[in-house]
Design goal:
By secondary structure, the protein is an alpha+beta fold. The chain is built from two helices and ten strands; from the N terminus they run H-H-E-E-E-E-E-E-E-E-E-E.
């Protein structure tokens, strides 16, 4: 029996088990940090960035700005969110929930929105029904050469009105945009 154990250790099986155990412990440690970081994202404040990933990961800064509810989106451009960021690479996401106006439109409700500078823009025809909830998303990635304002703005291109119920702009720093 002793001879058998000596053979197992000399062929590297013991060290392989140790490496596997260490790797499993590292994955568990990193996984817990990722889960903790993801749990923090919805609770982040608007004014200051939070450092989410450290210890072996590229440092990522996350900004999370909730939109003011009940903002009216009409024929004039409404600035919905504005965030000043330093030079760098960023990924930006917008999600919004709105309700179409109560007055029957002569044409469809149409949102013309821009996630600037140069992240995303779109024209969305959101229907002709009044008082109906709609959901929109925008996203993009961009490298900014200097400090800039990341802004999200919308207007109804057909002159109708809708009301913003909820939404947010989330911006994450990235090591690069390819």
């Amino acid at each position: 029996m002793a001879e058998r154990n000596r053979t197992a250790r000399s062929d590297g099986a013991g060290s392989s088990r140790q490496r596997t155990a260490k790797l499993a412990a590292d994955v568990a440690r990193i996984g817990k940090k990722v889960l903790v970081a993801l749990a923090l994202v919805p609770a982040m404040a608007c004014a200051a960035p939070d450092t989410v990933f450290v210890d072996g990961f590229e440092q990522t800064i996350v900004y999370d700005i909730a939109f003011s509810p009940n903002a009216v989106i009409g024929p004039s451009t409404a600035l919905i969110a504005n965030l000043n960021v330093p030079a760098g690479s960023y990924v930006a996401f917008v999600r919004m929930q709105l309700i179409t106006g109560s007055a029957a439109p002569a044409t469809s409700f149409r949102l013309d929105c821009t996630l600037a500078p140069g992240f995303d823009s779109g024209v969305y025809t959101i229907g002709v029904e009044t008082s109906v909830e709609r959901y929109l998303t925008f996203q993009g990635a961009k490298t900014l050469a200097s400090a800039s304002n990341i802004q999200f703005s919308c207007h109804d291109g057909n002159g109708n009105t809708s009301t913003l119920l909820s939404g947010k702009l989330t911006v994450m720093s990235a090591s690069a945009v390819n």
